[in-house]
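TEACHING EXERCISE
Course module: macromolecular assemblies
Task: Read the component lines below, then compare them to the predicted structure of the full complex.
Student: A.B.
Group: 4
Components provided:
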Amino acid sequence: MQIKGLLLDIDGVLVDAGRSVPRGPEALRALASEGVPYRLVSNSSQRSRRALAMRLQSMGYSVDTEEIFTPAVAAARFLVSKRASAYLAVRDEAKEDFQEVGVREDDRRPRYVVLGDMGEDVTYGRLNRILRFLLGGSQLIALGRTRIWRAPDGPALDVGPFVALFEEATGRQAIVFGKPEPKMFEEAAHSMRLKLGDVAMVGDDADVDVAAAKRAGAGLGVLVRTGKYRPGDEARYDPPPDEVHDSFPDFVDHFLSAVRSAAGSP
Ligand SMILES: [Mg+2]
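Instructor-supplied answer key:
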């Protein structure tokens, strides 16, 4: 199988414990100079992709904003393709991912409500406003189902519990973007004009990154032994990874030597 593009998880793969992994920036540059298309795939719904790109740049990575793919980016592409209006229940700094592609905001009769991590912006009034949109016929789009994230001062509610709250209240399921949902991997591949079957997913989570991408149809699932990896993860989930490497740069070394030998063979 020939892999034509890569989906790279950010936390635990490019970044570990708040800094870039050793040789990470050089490995990403090597992929770019070899002409391998890639997307950096994160489940974060707190920040815009421009803010994520700036964070990676501060750690030494050469990253363009367009190379970052988040649930908000996937949802914005979906809304534009449907020419649909939306009420954006996300942090203000996450709104620009929708605004820059021209999603029409509507706070009267939106066709969709986009629910992300609202952080301190959550109020009972705002929750009921969303509830009333949904009871009036708007459809809920969730930017993931992550339950808890680790804030600097301790565990904090992520978007998942709020998705469950509205599903319980309305009896209707949300459309969910974000890993491990198949749509997230598909949209990320399509944003490179590739089919998911021609793409490899590289992650530190054997379940949510690797097994989920393979179930969705990714051509190759690669587990790296950094970030949240724990010994035994290779065999813990179904399907298991196709390849396991000690780190993202080790994977890139292996991948590029295969690309070069394929290009050099008659
Ligand atoms: Mg990760």
